[in-house]
Each structure stands twice: as structure tokens, then as C-alpha cells.
Fold this sequence. Notes:
Elements: H1 7-21, H2 24-40, E1 57-60, E2 65-67, H3 68-71, E3 77-81, H4 90-100, H5 102-107, E4 111-116, H6 120-130, E5 135-138, H7 143-147, E6 151-153, H8 156-164, H9 169-173, E7 179-181, E8 184-188, E9 194-199, H10 209-224
Parallel strand pairs: 3-4, 4-5
Antiparallel strand pairs: 1-2, 1-5, 3-8, 6-7, 8-9
Amino acid sequence: MTQAQSLDRTLAEFQAKRAETMPADRLKINVDQRRLLVETADRAAFVKVGDTVQPFTLTEVDGEALGLETLLRDGPLVLIFFRFAGCPACNVALPYYNRHLAPDLNRLGATLIGVSPQVPGKLREIKERHDLDFLIATDADNALARRFGILYSFDEASRRVSLESGSPIGEVTGTGTWELPMPTAVVIDRSGTVRFADVSPDWLVRTEPADIIAAVQAITTRAAA
């Protein structure tokens, strides 16, 4: 069986092709914003292993309220934070997770949720477009992402481009703000303790499925013992 190409390699190839047709000034703004985030991110504030997660509620795209207690009822919880339904990199990453992560987590008894601040009516699009087999939910007002310390705001150049497009990001997400979460994977065990956390300030770098699966397997192995 041929080993799947890594997610980061898949994203790098995607961006290389996209860059061929992207106007040079837009490409520079994209690169500069990602570089700035990598250089200035407050990593000390990021969610980390050992943190206790207080109760929260997300809203699934069809309107169902998803509380932490309910989500942990049957096993570990895996949260994948992404930016919004129209985010090009997210449209590569989420289908990849659907193929290479969701089936293994299902076998391990873990719940997988893709989380974005985008309002449910707008967020539903990405789940339907890729026929995703896992939950997609709204983190209203970025409440959980803020608690996890993973938010960033558009820099001045990125705001200008967003405004010039006629669809500023606050309208795209329905939040009315310039804030988005950095791509983040969090694994929470049934006690509500974070057992794995990976935050990427660069949205073209994402957590590989194998790392998430290993974290969940460690939890299920401890539980079995």
C-alpha cells in the first residue's frame, strides 16, 4: 500500500501552484502576513498539554448545541481549528483529514470536530462541498479560540486587500471582526485534560494526522490499562 503524501507537502504543492497565478503584490501580502504571525505569535499563551478545559458549547452547522460534557461522553475529543469555509488551505486540509484522520479516530472511539468562528449558515458550505464525515461547528465570537490563546488579527495590508475585495473577512465569517484562529489541533481526554496541542501561526502548516492518532491511541491505551 502506497503511503499517503504528508499534509504539509500537499499544502506546499497547492500553494506553489496557486502562487503561479496570484498577483505578485497579493502573494507578497500573503507571505508577509504568515511570516509576521510566525515571528510575533505569543506561544506562551497557546493551549498546552496538561491544561484543564472548562465547559464550552459549540454550534454544529445544522444548529445542534455541542457541549464539552456530551462530546466527551464516549471517548476522547479532537478539535481541529480552521479559519473559514472559503479559506483555500482549509479546503485542502479538511478533506485530507476526512481521508487520513477521521476513519482512524472513529475506530478509536474519538470524536472529531472541525471548529471555525464562521456562523453556521456560512460554515455549512465546506462540509457539504467535501462531504465531510465529521462534525463541523461554530465557535461563536471566537470564545474557545480566545481561551486557547490561538487568535490572530489581519495586519494592515491584509485588511486593505480584504476591504478592496468587497467582502471583508468579518462579513465573510459573519463575525464582524478581523480575528481568525490559527490552525490548531487539540486532543482532550475524558477528564477534560489536554493531552496534545499543536498550534501553527502559519496557516500553510498543519498538524499531521499521525501525530493526532498517536495522541488518541495513548489515551485509549491508558484507559484500557
